[in-house]
Amino acid sequence: MAVTDEAIEKIKGMIVSGALRPGDRLPKESELAAELGLSRNSLREAVRALSLIRILDVRQGDGTYVTSLDPQVLLEAMSFVVDFHRDDTVLEFLAVRRILEPAATAMAAGRIGREELDALEARLDALGPSPSVEDLVASDLEFHRGIVAASGNSVLCSLLDGLSGPTTRARIWRGLTQKDAVARTLTEHRAILGALRDRDAEAARAWATVHIASVEQWLRTSL
């Protein structure tokens, strides 16, 4: 592992220094191994590891390229890792969401357009007063994703998208076991939307905090 780690660090150094830029094709394996003083096997392992976390893109028959290195691409690896969480860490993921998502919602209050607000409202209207838990959770994900995207911060958007996996299960469980969960969720969504229409960043932040904290509080007493 030490040899592979060294190879990873050397490739990382080339990217960080600018010797390799987003979209660049890596030199041939034999040439790069000689340049970096690595064996071809250790270089191959490093490339495999870096492709798993979306730093490199191995194209069969074409070569290996540096990816775009956009936050959305890089943070896909986090989403993959998050899927392996233990049930007892769901509360920790929710706590992180409670820190980040209200801030993103407050940022969106000053940037979100009328068309985006109308689309969010139409999505809520389409659910009706008594949606299934599965439809509600799917709508909830899209509702929050739309608001966070409107914050204009792609890193924040990708982080929160990656954190949604473990909390989805918690929301489904809550909907199945808590009678007023569906109505409460719809009410809180309407309140967040109203604050965004009013361009009231602090009200939007507060309602987003309440919304996530209610799931977190319920789950804390249920585990």
Automatic annotation (TrEMBL):
InterPro entries: GntR_C (IPR011711), TF_FadR/GntR_C (IPR008920), Tscrpt_reg_HTH_GntR (IPR000524), WH-like_DNA-bd_sf (IPR036388), WH_DNA-bd_sf (IPR036390). CDD domains: WHTH_GntR. SMART domains: FCD (SM00895), HTH_GNTR (SM00345). PROSITE patterns: HTH_GNTR. Keywords: DNA-binding, Transcription, Transcription regulation. Signal peptide: none annotated. Residues 1-69 form the HTH gntR-type domain. It holds the Pfam family FCD. This is FadR family transcriptional regulator. It comes from Streptomyces siderophoricus.
